[in-house]
Design brief:
about 100 residues, mainly beta, 10 Kd Chaperonin, Protein Cpn10, Chain O, about 5% helix
Length: about 100
């Protein structure tokens, strides 16, 4: 089966939104117990792929490209742009946490 080639090259979020690539769902617990598909823990973390110009220019929004974020999945808009469909447009208000490492 031939892959459908997209006519678009990139997705640019508009307004106070970011484009997030969702992390792969966890298939086992930290203790090593394998989880069946029915018991899959929904993954709501991901990496910011692109930020809108409004977010980039807003000093009150502490989000940057490549940040790992925790987001609310109910209002995230899936982007049918790639075959794995792991891209989501997320409103800044739905990003609930940013994972950071302390810089040494």
């Amino acid at each position: 089966m031939a892959k459908k080639k997209s006519e678009f090259e990139y997705v640019e979020p508009i307004g106070h939104r970011v484009l997030v690539r969702k992390d792969d769902p966890k298939r086992e617990t930290k203790g090593g117990i394998a989880l069946p598909d029915a018991a899959e823990i929904p993954t709501i973390t991901g990496r910011i792929v692109t930020i809108s110009a409004a977010v980039e220019n807003d000093e009150d929004v502490p989000l940057r490209q490549y940040d790992k974020v925790l987001f609310h999945p109910k209002s995230a808009i899936p982007v049918d742009f790639e075959s794995d469909n792991a891209l989501f447009v997320v409103d800044v208000e739905d990003v609930v946490a940013v994972f950071r490492r302390e810089e040494s």
